[in-house]
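Entry details:
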Amino acid sequence: MTQKIVHNSPSHQIEKMKNQHKFNLNTAWKFIKEDVNEASNPHFDDSNWETVSLPHTFNDKDTFDNFMEGGHNGERSMYTGKTWYRKTFQLEEIDKGKKVFIEFEGARQAADVYINGKKLEGKSENGFIPFGYDLTPYIHFGTDKENVLAVMVDNTFPYKAEGTDDVLSWHDSHWHPTHGGLWRNVYLHLKDKLHITLPLYSFLKTQGTYVYASDITDNTATITVEAEVANEYDTAKQVDCVSDVFDRDGNIVLSMKDTRIVEAGKKILFRSDAQMKHPHRWSPQYPYVYTVKTKLYTEGELTDDTETPLGIRTFEFTSDQGFFINGQPLKLKGWGQRPTNEWAGLGAAYPNWMHGFMFDLMKDAGGNFIRWGHSAGAPVDIELADKYGLITIQPGVDGEGSTVGGVYSDVAYKIRAQAFRDMIIYFRNHPSILIWEGGNQSVPEPEAKTLRAIADTWDPNGMRAYAHRRSNLTMADYIDVSIGTEGSWELKSKGKPIVEGEYNREEAARRVWDRYTPGYENYETSPGSAYNLTSEEFAKNQAKHFEKISHPAHCGGANWIFSDSTSHGRVYSEVSRVSGQVDGVMLPKEAFFTTKTIYREDPQVHIIGHWNYKEGTVKDIYVMSNADEVELFVNGVSQGFGSKSHSYLFTFEKIHWESGTIKALAYNQNKEGIAVQEKKTTGEAAAVKLTPITGPEGFKANGSDIVLLDAEVVDADGNRVPIFEGHIDFTIEGPAIWRGGYNSGKEGSTNHTYLDIEAGINRVAIRSTLTVGVIQITAVVDGLKTDSISVESIPVPIEHGLSTELPSLQEGKLGEEPPIGNGPSESSPLAETEAEESQLITDFSYSGIEEVGGVKGTVNIGDRIFIDREYEFQFLMEPILGSDYIQLANNEKNYKALDLIHFTVTKEADVYIAHDDRLSRPEWLLEDFNETKRKVIVDETLHTVFQQTVQAGTTLTLGGNQDETNETNCNMYVVFVKETVS
């Protein structure tokens, strides 16, 4: 299909473009998926290259289509290597003499940038943090002169820092899918030589504006604006820097000014402050964001302006009473999410409004919190968190541990530290960010010291906390908050508050309702799977797992993860890691709705599953509700009240299925009905129903916009048939590119004009081209009535390769402004610290499925080995006799995790691992422990003892019992710790 750029912009938009100084550079790039000699040459012929628009990934066609490899590796059967992008644009002659900057919101994994054949200094290798360049010395002005931008983008795996053998650990599908490309927005900035700098430290060495509130009281707040101003004229300039604070209605509520002399060729920091009266406070319930517009004047002439968000809030993380914002207690409830936000059919690159689509889901479910793991969320995601009211943990770039496979590297760490600095400078004005995350694990002390210093240097007035996940004793001197895992609370004894980073890491696909649904009666996941859950089991387990963070002293935190991901895979029979509350096209699972009953404050009730079963089916029915009691009805007949467990789960045993209606009625303490839900038995499948979803401004012909299409199978009354599974074919006509969807448990299902309906519905995507027109889509399922819809793409203003239309964002709902609270109580007792039998092992945490016995002191012959078996220690030789030990569950012998056990040893000690001789040794055991000749007998089976001597304060993280194998005739390993005798 021939694509052309539409030049039918209204005249007023063209005039706006001439006065505008930020332009959208996303449209109409040339792209080739190979390394091409001379591609940076401006005269190179790229006419046979593909035309693409940004955001773009070259892995949209080869992802979500292969089963996870297991071993936490994620999907690796995709293109990795060097690619090239080229973009041609022109600038007006009238702009000659201005400064020209380019801003990339991100490039994965690495990028070299050329302008008109000149390679720009600075290679971006972190993949996630915005960066920019000064193009001015190499730019041609005049619409008859082309400027050619060329970018080499490399997602080679494993990616090594340029000129070294140092692998950058976060560029790994273990942590983030290796989707390469210019996967975020790109902007061109035209500025006067006297200008406010951009917050792009690499590779401009500039910091932009820094806006913050201090001395916040019930009635006032001091607002400070710091703006870095550059004078690139040949003469000094007297400059007025004026900052106006606008409320949400566009009214100026505060003005301030600073006047300075800026010498030629210098940059200085302007600073002004003023007191605001009756400020609105930002909070998840009331995400009020002011806009600060800063302008530069010299000799009365405006030379530059910029806008910065401002949110006024106070907050406190406490170790005994949880989290407070604006003096009000608030339990943090939300999700961890990959910063790639990958989507089947689209990969990690799609328009801004689709990020808003995800935030709408999060907010609807009652979420107020998000942790980006383990690298920085995108600019659009942080801005949306501001607008929607999601408190955010923002990291820099990280995998886990130190910089190269957990081992320190000067080269890799330098890149990581610079990325952390760049991230803070870029995002420090966003009110939603309350925590800077220094790492997904503890790091060596020099690293912790450096990262903490970066946060303190570049955000000294943001009041934000600094944190690490899995913090050891060394980290106690540097962190403000500990980020937990599966309910762990590291450094509790040191008084560090806890925010959960990864609870409920179970997995279940959306399509698998339960073991009573036709076709799934004998459902099992693949051999070697870490979990064997149906959607029903995954959904009801949300209540059990939430208990891990429900203690009033716990600040709350993140359910792991929000959407299914192609990274960190553990189940070979799935094309993604199915830990999400929604699937790979963000269709909600039952777990989404049950989490909603926990997270929302208004009355909620949800019947897990459907009501379409075979005659004679008798099964337990599970209902989740935040009410006090729930009564169940089948065809109007009461089945009684459910037994309540885990605070939110109501179980109704042995309910006989009858065609008709099942209803759950929730009651408060006064026996008043406060919430109700009904589900009905649907009729036979009769028709296909298509529903388009576009951005709030319609389907734009910019080459990168998306229309989503929900394809349902419905009965004669238009109700979705929840158990329908079957083949569906699509046809498409008009100026658009079919991107399709996927099937979660089926290889090779992406990028086709056909797929399978799962649980009555599936979702596909269609990408726009640069041509305006009507797109007609028809969906056919054999034996059912077909459906057709049309979607019209609309023009976008493009002139000289630039667009005046910047990517737009949805606005969150403001709600009612809550009162300001009094904060933590001074007389509240400290949170209870559970007494551990061991004085040698502290901060023990466990991320497996089963309950564990925990830490036991002074092991002797006859003690119980596992909590779920009657096995006893029959013989224990010195030096193991008298050790402290960890009592696990033997049922975890096949569970696979990298961080199954985590604990700190308080004194110099020997750590012993007794591992079953029938098993291959896991990699972590061989790397960190030495094999000895000692043996331990477990159920008449020999276990070889491995040993490591550690110093006081050492924190250990132990992995699973097996790596790739799934041997069932074996035992779980046993951990012993004994103080070293001098």
Observations:
- The first strand starts at residue 22 and ends at 24.
